[in-house]
Amino acid sequence: MAITVNGMLPGPTLEVKNGDTLEIEVVNKARYNATIHWHGVRQMRTGWADGPEFVTQCPIRPGGSYTYRFTIEGQEGTLWWHAHSSWLRATVYGALIIRPREGESYPFPKPKRETAIVLGEWWDANPIDVVRQATMTGAAPNNSDAYTINGQPGDLYKCSSKDTTIVPIDVGETNLLRVINAALNQPLFFTVANHKLTVVGADAAYLKPFTTSVIVLGPGQTTDVLIQGNQLPARYYMAARAYQSAQNAPFDNTTTTAILEYKSAPCPAKKGINGPKPIMPSLPAYNDTNTVTAFSQSFRSPQKVEVPTEIDESLFFTVGLGLNNCPPNFPSSRCQGPNGTRFTASMNNVSFVFPQSISLLQAHQHGIPGVFTTDFPGTPPLQFDYTGNVSQSLYQPVPGTKLYKLKYGSKVQIVLQDTSIVTPENHPIHLHGYDFYIVAEGFGNFDPKTDTSKFNLVDPPQRNTVGVPVNGWAAIRFVADNPGVWIMHCHLDVHITWGLAMAFVVENGFGELQSLQAPPPDLPIC
């Protein structure tokens, strides 16, 4: 049993054009609260349609409905949509494909076919029960049981080979694969046996093409690749498995596969007759950070871009895990983290607490006091050796619903710094309502004196989710031109559950076109 959209896993693919306005009615027939987030859509002035529960709306209650209305402006490529309430997105997700406007074309030769490759993560359990159990015990949640490609685990699991996803190709074709990492908690390597992949876009922004044998995507990220039918007609596995950067943390080490099948290939073996097995690719080692680094450093925008230079807000955010001491009124069964603690996570030592009775955007719009404060620290409250041996006294963050205020039009730089508290880890950090330029990444502690000179201010890639390197940092820049309340969080759902999030409140500018629209009449009530 799984909660799905329209009975499909993955859910329906939305195919639209740049410039289209969408109206999507979401009817909640499940027994849990639900919302849908349109991941990577800019939502200019339409924050009410963004979807994160208790951030831009109250949830759609069981039996209720809400119509999301928004326009796609200036974005082309692959995005996706997913639930943004508890762990529902384990099965509530689908592709959002944005093609060029009528009469316009891709900046690369038109592919013969296009296929969405949606990477998912599967539990042989109700994912809501999995996260509820972890919240009860304070321990890490149970690992998933499989990864999937377009809803199917593939031939390497004991249950599923008759339904393995098949992706067609033929000799001489150039096809477009739109790869989406919709897994809940795991960055993934993806590769196709004997075939090179030419990366042409990511997160609905075009890139300077480069060729690679393996790509890596953090949860939330998308990558568009061209694949050429230039091998012997046969069947080749495409495969995905974990990139695991956290030391000694248990993880799902299984491999999901689909089959790239040449139309002119010899017929696959009939049931019971052993035919040739598809050719299996080699995948990087689970902890192969070097491959991840080489891949992310290959990203460039296709031409020179306008990167904000005169910075108004220079922010420095630590991102990482923590451990809360067991509250005195808790039995030991509720403190099953390391040494009788409870897992937590934070940014700048604030562990984010979501409101429970009204959304942040409603509180901001209507001036309702007591829901949030605007004192999120722009720099760590305490400086320390972030990636070194950190004193246990710094393991326990402060819970709070703290936002950071940005003036309309301000030019923002954020350095996101991983910490080695509990364990260093690659964190895919997603900012709602914005794309940003990744101007640099590096390892160790960010040093403004030496690292600023390495910034790419000419053609950095534009993304909505950045993989902050394990034991390292990433620097991003954007202009705060979209008023509203926008959450920035780790897209490993286990970490957002623990509080690895913060939110910006971007004030209105001058006049209607620089102001948040009025809330829609059917916005769910709390």
Automatic annotation (TrEMBL):
Lineage top rank: taxon: Eukaryota
Function summary: Lignin degradation and detoxification of lignin-derived products.
Protein name: Laccase
A single MF term (Gene Ontology): hydroquinone:oxygen oxidoreductase activity
Location in or out of the cell: Secreted, Extracellular space, Apoplast
Cofactor note text: Binds 4 Cu cations per monomer.
UniProt xrefs under CDD domains: CuRO_1_LCC_plant, CuRO_2_LCC_plant, CuRO_3_LCC_plant
Catalytic activity of the protein: 4 hydroquinone + O2 = 4 benzosemiquinone + 2 H2O
Main location: secreted
Membership in a protein family: Belongs to the multicopper oxidase family.
Cellular compartments per GO CC: apoplast
Domain Plastocyanin-like: 2-102, 114-264, 376-508
UniProt keyword annotations, A-Z: Apoplast, Copper, Glycoprotein, Lignin degradation, Metal-binding, Oxidoreductase, Repeat, Secreted
PROSITE patterns reported in the protein's UniProt record: MULTICOPPER_OXIDASE1 (PS00079), MULTICOPPER_OXIDASE2 (PS00080)
Cofactor annotation: Cu cation
GO terms for biological process, alphabetical: lignin catabolic process
Enzyme nomenclature, EC number: 1.10.3.2
